[in-house]
Amino acid sequence: MLKIKNLKADIENKSILNNFNLEIKPGEVHAIMGPNGSGKSTLSNILSGKKGYDISGEILFENKNIFELETEERAHKGIFLAFQYPLEIPGVNTNIFLKTSLNAIRKARGEKELDAIEFLKLVKLKAKELKFDEEKLNRQLNVGFSGGEKKKNEILQMSILNPKLSILDETDSGLDIDALKTVADGVNSLRKKDNSFLIITHYQRLLDYIKPDYVHVLINGKIIKSGGPELALELEKKGYENFN
Amino acid sequence: MEKQLKIDFQKLLETSNFSKKNVEIKRKNFENFIEKGFPNRREENWKFSDLNQIISKNIKNLSFYNDLSKPNKIDQSIFIDGLEHNKLVFVNGRIEKIEFDYEEKNKMEILDDLVLEKSNNSNNSLLFLNNAFVSKYFKLIVKKNYSLKKPLAIYNITNKDLVSKSINLKIDILLEENSSLKLIDFSNDKSITNFININYNFDLQKNSILKNYKIDNNSNSNVKYSFSNINQDSNSVSEIFLLSSGSEFIKNEINCNLNGEYASAFVNGVYILGETKHHEIKTNINHLVEKTKSYQLIKGVLEDTSKAVYQGKIFVDSKAQKTDGYQLSKAILLNDNTEFDAKPELEIYADDVKCSHGSASGSLNEDSIFYLMSRGLNYQEAKKLLINGFLLDVVEKITDSEIKNLIKNIMSLKQ
Question: Is A244 inside a domain boundary?
């Protein structure tokens, strides 16, 4: 599904990612673990098409290079990024935003747009699954939401948009244990044989709840080791500094 | 211009039947205007909007005499659709229609041919101009305990017959005790390069409520000045909303005197400007007795080389303890050639008051745009959603839901 070859990313002449390679097949869950400043968020930004980086190499999504695609075109193709810091958007109603977003994607895919009733049915169902307070859906997007609510809202968006590749950028940070479980349940319920996940995290904690197929260690912009779930435990024991 | 002014003033006197006293008052106003001329940036009040320059840049051969003897046709298509309302229609400065079909006639008094009885004692040269050249003025009195059942829309229409003229309108509105009025000012201009000068005087007696929505939405090349003077007795409420968008230049000046306890004034507004448009909102909120309240929220979105100015003043008299005054202005500048000038002013002579002000401007947040685009919206859609969200905040302050919806429709803010 996703193939990254020799990705190099600089920002203002500072190298962030270097010779980065990764392949994710349909149905797989990959975790990338790394310390602060290792390039984790840059990776998720670049996959979503954020501007401002000098990049070279190749990113193939379903065997097509997506380098030239705009952020929204990547979303239309099924790439979703759950933000580390979801933004507050004043004056924009959450429900209306979700509907706009879903219909933009459906339209781009040539699918029928949902009307208000169909949409509300869907959103109610998903909110219930995620134990997301429905009343919040009538509020301004993320405005006045707690850290946990913002993260849950990301997962809610993910489950409504039903992407092929979901990138979770430190979704576990700032979550208490109950919220962590809810978020993990949400992710697990979306695991299907043709949906893939890239989970970016500092800690092993989230991986107790979402079992990855592969774990990669990212240090200084490069994957230095890859392995199975046991790698996360090893990392937790040794710490990043002693890991080489 | 002075020569033209004199010729036109003479013409006005010759073609009207003013009493001796009227002529005297008018002549005094005329002389005052001749002496002061159009305001320029040397006056503090006009330092961000040099009207003298704006007029000479935009209007060639401005003339001041306006022949009101012949009726004008009303283009019905510009009437607000989907809202039952009373109508007062001016076309090219002439009253063409007075229609209060929804109201009890004995609860109101409508006077449409008043002439000036007393001189204004301000120092505002544009009021001098207005009072010198206005021929007849309009007054509405809403009697005690009466609330108009439907809003009143005052249409100020100009058509293509009007070129390079100065139009002066004067409208007085008296709300007696316990009465209320919702007033929509709606302009529609097909004319080019005129100077339109409107002078409102509102008197709000005890417990009365005025809601005034000033909508300047249709793009036009006219230069406008609208001055609203509001006097408020105890417990009265004024709520003003300004949509400032269509005219080449408009300055909305609001002078509000809170003369009675528990009187409150709300001034909210949005600028949506593009091209070379230049708009100003200037407020003076005067807290003159104890326990009065004022609130002002102004937001703008500026594109191309447009310019917005907000001068907001809160004055608190030494007697006016327990004053509650608030103002905030914010602007989004969509490119480097736009300009937002904010001058918040607090002048406070009492010690037990709560007053605050703030102002901020900046560009659209690119991270927010990235967030929305990552959810499938393209750049233009994301930008529009953010801008609408930014402005919606002000529109939501409108307390009348029917008119709020109307204004959302006009601004295409319907979600």
Answer: no
Would you say B371 and A142 are in contact if contact means Cβ atoms under 8 Å apart? no
Q: What are B17-33's pLDDT values in tens digits? A: 889 999 999 999 999 99
**Number of compact structural domains in chain B:** 1
Q: Determine the structural domain holding residue A55 and report its residue range.
A: 2-238
pLDDT one-digit tens code per residue, B297-347: 999 999 999 999 999 999 999 999 999 999 999 999 999 999 999 999 999
Residue A229 exposed, middle or buried by CB count within 10 Å (0-12, 13-18, 19+): middle
Identify which of A72, A76, A89 has the shortest CB distance to residue B389.
Answer: A89
CB contact under 8 A, B376 and A157: no
Could you tell me if residue A243 is inside a domain? no
CA angle (A53, A56, A60) in 5-degree steps = 105
- Per-residue pLDDT of chain A in tens (244 residues, 90 and over written 9): 999 999 999 998 899 999 999 999 999 999 999 988 889 999 999 999 999 999 999 999 999 999 889 999 999 999 999 999 999 999 899 999 999 999 999 999 999 999 999 999 999 999 998 888 889 999 999 999 988 899 999 999 999 999 999 999 999 888 888 888 888 988 898 898 899 999 999 888 889 899 999 999 999 999 999 999 999 888 888 888 777 6
- B304: phi then psi, degrees, rounded to nearest 5: 55, -125
Q: Find the distance separating the first CA and the last CA of chain B, reported in whole Å.
A: 50
Judged by a CB distance cut-off of 8 A, whether residue B218 touches chain A is: no
Residue A62 lies in a domain: yes
Strands (E), B190-236: 195-204, 209-216, 220-232
> CA B171, B173, B177: angle at the middle one, nearest 5?
175
**Is B391 a member of any domain?**
no
* Residue B377 to chain A, least CA–CA distance (Å): 6
User: Would you say residue B386 lies in a domain?
Assistant: no
Sheet with B137-142, side-by-side order of all strands: B108-114, B137-142, B166-175, B195-204, B220-232, B247-258, B278-287, B307-316, B339-348
Residue B335 lies in a domain: no
Q: Given CA atoms A76, A78, A79, A84 in this order, what sign does their dihedral have?
A: positive
Asked if B278 contacts B250 with a C-beta cutoff of 8 angstroms, the reply is: no
- Domain of A92, CATH number, reads 3.40.50.300
| Residue A120 counted as domain residue | yes
Which pLDDT tens digit goes with each residue over B293-307?
A: 999 999 999 999 999
SS3 A3: strand
The CB density around residue A123, as the number of other CB atoms within 10 Å, is: 22
Is any Cβ of chain B less than 8 angstroms from the Cβ of A134? no
Domain span at B6: 1-188
Q: Which residues contact B413 (CB under 8 A, 6 or more apart)?
A: B388, B391, B392, B395, B407
Tally of structural domains, chain A: 1
- Classify residue B222: in a domain, yes or no: no
Chain A closest-CA separation from residue B245 CA (Å): 20
Identify the residue whose tokens are 């009187």.
B263
Among A72, A97, A157, the strongest candidate for a mutation testing the B interface, having the largest count of B CBs within 10 A, is A72
**Residue B120 confidence (pLDDT):** 73
Taking CB atoms and an 8 Å cutoff, what residues of chain A touch B378?
Answer: 70, 72, 104
Put the strands of the sheet holding B237-244 in their side by side order: B94-99, B86-91, B152-158, B180-189, B209-216, B237-244, B264-273, B293-302, B324-333, B354-362
